[in-house]
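[Meeting: bench + compute handoff]

Bench side (C.D.) handed over the final construct sequence. Compute side (W.E.) agreed to return the predicted structure before the next meeting so the bench team could plan truncations. Sequence as handed over:
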Amino acid sequence: MDDLIISGFRVDWRRLGASYVNRIPALRSLDELEFGSPVVFLTGENGSGKSTLLEAIAVVCGFSAEGGSRNYRFSTYDDCSDLADALVLYRKRAIPPSSFFLRAESFFTMATQARDYDRGRSAMSALHEMSHGEGFLEIMLSRNAPGLYLMDEPESALSAGRQLALLAHMHRLAEQGAQFIVATHSPILLGLPGAQILQFDDDGVRPCDYEDTDAHRITASFINHRGVLLRHLFADEGR
């Protein structure tokens, strides 16, 4: 799509060498990938490579691997994969200054960096004074310009109601020209109309309809057939 900031990428596997990334089936299947929507969701089981790919995209775009805007420069532990060395992004236009990388697992240190960088100019200085979920949502609701937004499991700190608020905000920004690439397990976020959903599994990375995602299928099964599912689950545990 011509209006995207990043329209896709290719992987130059010759640059990677002996890396654990080679042992992740979904990632190893990737040579090239095109993004077909302003909102792209990466979904699949834990360990399927979603966050590894998102982190690599963030690093190539100039973000800290631990999150923040492109002005943030901090590192508490260097565990970034070397996939970024092999990733070639297809950039269509410059990355706007409002862009942000939101990463659940390093939120605390990122909030400290936000306080030091913001110096009381906005609510970003007070993230430590908010609950985890409030801080997460504040970061995204404070973004009102059409930037590039990378989010790694944003639902981890959000209630169902706050996920709906984030969903609505993503929709508004995407209509204004923002681009989102989001790794998620949330059946709420995955339901954003018009989003491209990419399923990561042992067979590779493939486009997936919302109703066919594991997040939707398992959640719908639990809600609609909770008693039957729990009886089978507990019976299996007792064997």
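W.E. noted at the follow-up: The first helix runs from residue 25 to 28. C.D. will use this when planning the next construct.
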